[in-house]
Amino acid sequence: MKKRFLPACIAFLASFGFFLIAYPYHLLRREHLNLFVFDGDYIAQRFRGVGWLSRLTSSFVEQFFCVRVLGPLIVSLLLVAIGTVTYRICRKFLGERGSYLTAALMFIWSFLRECGNLYLTRYTIASLGFLSLILLALQFNKLRDKALAAVLFICVGFWALGSPCDKTYGKLWGLPMLNVERVIGLDIETANENWDRVLKLSEKDLYMIEASVCYNLSQAMKGQLGNRLFDHSQGDPYNFILAVSGDQNFFTNGIAGEQWYQLGDMTIAEQSAVTCLQASPEHTGARFIERLARVNIITGQEATAQKYLNLLSKTVFYRKWAKRMLDGAYTEEDEEWIGRGRSKMAVSDDIHLGNVPRSVLQGLLEANPDNTPAREFLLCYDLLRYDLEQFSEDYDSCRLDSHIYKEAMVIWLEQQGISSRTVAEEYGINDSVRQRMEMFFRYPNNYRNTYWYYYMKALNESGL
Asked: Does the predicted TM-score (pTM) go above 0.85?
């Protein structure tokens, strides 16, 4: 008897360890895209129609995925249950070795499906449900009774469980995608404002727009973007600051919203959250509901914020926070993020065009000249577009201490024919900067993290 439990224990530990250590953000993301509200009317309206039981069950269990250990635990138990039920079904027809092999293949198939990027837990639950119904039908003694029970149970199963596969969210096959897992991790840690963790995940460059955006934002929030910009890949300068657009997937729009929320534009942050809610698989998501509540608290839209807080107050893990916000019983931490958000807000709340981020950033700086992240994004945006004339105007008003900004000013002064040492020193260009520039011209490949390298590379590529 103990020998029979050994394969199940090994499978459970392997699955649990994988999702806990190597693939943790994959399941945390599902909780972000889920919302289970303990309200009779809400449940009756949302979980109806074909597949209601699997959707209801998966939504209930996915709310616990926000606890990092519970997600891997629940998924691993489901996968082992699939293997166990498969084994018991096969024992009716096959020998022990064949039953173990079939159960193992079923476990592996279900495990790989769980690794799919857009996979939803409800399809694993539906698969387990159908297997359980087949096992139940096989408990009848007569062949005719078994056949009738199987037909009846499968019909009921399709009504209650729906299909165990879907061309978009429950594909027949999946594979672990570790690079995608890291980008999902960058997104989640950015939303949680864990800037050190974002930088840790960014150590190995993924050469993806979304990864660069998270990296740049974390450096800006730590006041180091001007020094560390070219330590990470930078693609098209027009993707340096993401717009919220219907042409992008909801994942990219979500990262764009995080970027603008931290920079201080609550209008774009709110637009991002609404867009993500509409585009998410279940058209909901606790993360986006919470973001909408935070945005409206910051902007002073109490009635709108209350609508979202009322929803969150009927959940397990957001209830305490939501009730505290509804009662106005703010902690010091609450006062800090509310005050920080309000201090960065622009005076106007117009809907901005996504292709003119400069005007948005300038509006934020007019409202709060001390908004250093917005200023660093403005300066770096100028530099990535090689607009040194505009950069010199924007830099002149702040003179932030950064080697990249000084390197850009060296080029601009040369273009203007300004050779005055006094003027150069006003911009912080001293002997050490000049010596570094001399070394750059000797060994340019040793200075890839400089603006000189970025600028000269563009000149060489353009043939100038």
From this structure: yes
- Determine contact, residues 33/282, Cβ cutoff 8 Å: yes
Helix axes 52-62, 143-161, angle to 10 degrees: 60
DSSP 330-359: --HHHHHHHHHHHHH--S--PPPPTT-HHH
pLDDT at 150: 87
| pLDDT value of position 381 | 95
Residue with tokens 């897992």: 181
- The number of angstroms, rounded, from the C-alpha of 269 to the middle of its chain's C-alpha atoms is 14
pLDDT at 427: 82
Residue 177's identity, in one-letter code, is M
How far from the centroid of its chain's Cα atoms is residue 378's Cα?
24
For residue 401, the Cα-to-chain-centroid distance in whole angstroms is 31
Which stretches of the chain score pLDDT less than 50?
Answer: 1, 464
178-341: CATH topology: 1.25.40
Domain ranges of the chain: 2-161, 178-341, 386-462
φ/ψ bin of 193: left (φ > 0), alpha (ψ from -120 to 50), beta (otherwise):
left
Question: Which residue matches tokens 């979980």?
Answer: 47
pLDDT tens per residue, range 258-271: 999 999 999 999 99
C-alpha–C-alpha distance, residues 169 and 113, integer Å: 10
Q: Is the dihedral of CA 249, 61, 6, 17 positive or negative?
A: positive
